[in-house]
Give the backbone structure.
Amino acid sequence: MLLAVQILAALAGLLHVYIFVMESVRFADPKVHQATFKTDPADLEAVKPWAYNQGWYNLFLAVGALLGAVLVRVEPAVGWTLVVSSCGSMLLAALVLVARDRSMASSALKQGLFPLLALVFSLTQL
């Protein structure tokens, strides 16, 4: 089961690296801000700084999940702390997203599924 936690935490981390790229690197691309994030082009300049900042939050969570997935075997206390706190934050962010706007359920599911599964499998290790 530990391997499952590592894989799921790593997948959660990689997904959040991808989200970072969309929010902080490619947000000005209409395929990203319009198609993915449903941002009106007229609002782009106002929203870009927020998206940029949010992308970095996602990158920091990703780094925590990825490091935790690696360290959980060699430094268990550090690894578990990183996996649980990073994946827990990712899952809670997904829940906030869908709680605020039910039309975001698909995005919340994509964002929160790997962290949720990593946490569920973590329970079998504690």
Helices lie at 2-25, 30-36, 44-71, 76-100, 105-123. The mean pLDDT is 96. The radius of gyration is 15 Å.
